[in-house]
């Protein structure tokens, strides 16, 4: 019998998107929480899983897959009947992957300039402060662009998809930006509210916020 997949995630991180997808398709997986605030992503145990030191990571039969868009696509394909990716060759299919690319390569990177400036520049403090402020402005501009691109239904048309799951973490990070997302991005906020209200997503939030997650940390799992 094949071993269940192991999913590495962190709280309040981009990994919530594939975490939602795993619950939506009813996948059998073991969830392990990586404590980013304690620097656990840089522990030898986790670096053996993902040498990049980032979450999410999904381990299947000793092989690791990373990157949110790849994980969302893979997980959705485990249960095509769930309809989490629009039909191939439709405009909605293109739109869905447009969202994954835009959020991953533009929005997340701008947010990282603001939140993780040391990925981009060394310890030159003046330069770091300038990058943080420019990253904040770039991110806010991109958040407004997200809102401009959204229609009245779901991100990729009239059905819930993996694109909507990926809109969740960035929305949740807005509080750090000094940006009133509810007022400025009502369509995005409405989508996130509907996503958070789903049963599968409630299970994800319960797991990510539970004490059980503490016990399931990477350190604990490698100590077994
Ligand atoms: N391009 C990657 C980005 C992954 C990423 O940056 N994850 C963050 C959490 S949102 C992380 O692990 N940060 C840890 C660190 O920067 O040390 C993806 O899409 O999966």
UniProtKB/TrEMBL annotation:
Family listed: Belongs to the GST superfamily.
Organism, as annotated: Sphingomonas hankyongi
Phylogenetic lineage: Bacteria, Pseudomonadati, Pseudomonadota, Alphaproteobacteria, Sphingomonadales
Domain of life: Bacteria
Gene3D superfamilies: 1.20.1050.10, Glutaredoxin (3.40.30.10)
Protein name: Glutathione binding-like protein
SUPFAM superfamilies the record matches: GST C-terminal domain-like, Thioredoxin-like
Domain GST N-terminal: 2-83
Domain GST C-terminal residues, every copy: 89-219
């Amino acid at each position: 019998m094949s071993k269940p997949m192991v999913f590495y995630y962190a709280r309040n991180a981009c990994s919530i998107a594939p975490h939602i997808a795993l619950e939506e398709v009813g996948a059998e997986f073991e969830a392990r929480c990586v404590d980013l605030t304690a620097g656990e992503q840089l522990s030898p145990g986790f670096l053996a899983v993902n040498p990049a030191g980032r979450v999410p990571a999904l381990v299947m039969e000793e092989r690791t897959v990373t990157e949110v868009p790849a994980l969302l696509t893979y997980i959705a394909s485990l249960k095509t009947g769930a309809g989490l990716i629009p039909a191939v060759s439709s405009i909605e299919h293109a739109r869905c992957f447009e969202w994954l690319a835009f959020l991953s390569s533009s929005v997340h990177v701008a947010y990282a300039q603001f939140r993780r400036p040391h990925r981009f520049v060394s310890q030159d403090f003046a330069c770091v402060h300038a990058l943080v402020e420019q990253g904040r402005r770039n991110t806010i501009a991109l958040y407004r662009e997200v809102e401009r691109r959204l229609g009245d239904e779901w991100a990729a048309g009239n059905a819930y998809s993996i694109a909507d799951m990926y809109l969740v973490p960035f929305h949740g990070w807005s509080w750090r930006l000094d940006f009133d997302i509810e007022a400025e991005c009502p369509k995005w906020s409405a989508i996130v509210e509907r996503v958070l209200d789903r049963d599968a997503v409630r299970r994800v939030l319960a797991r990510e916020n539970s004490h059980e997650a503490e016990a399931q940390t990477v350190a604990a799992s490698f100590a077994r």
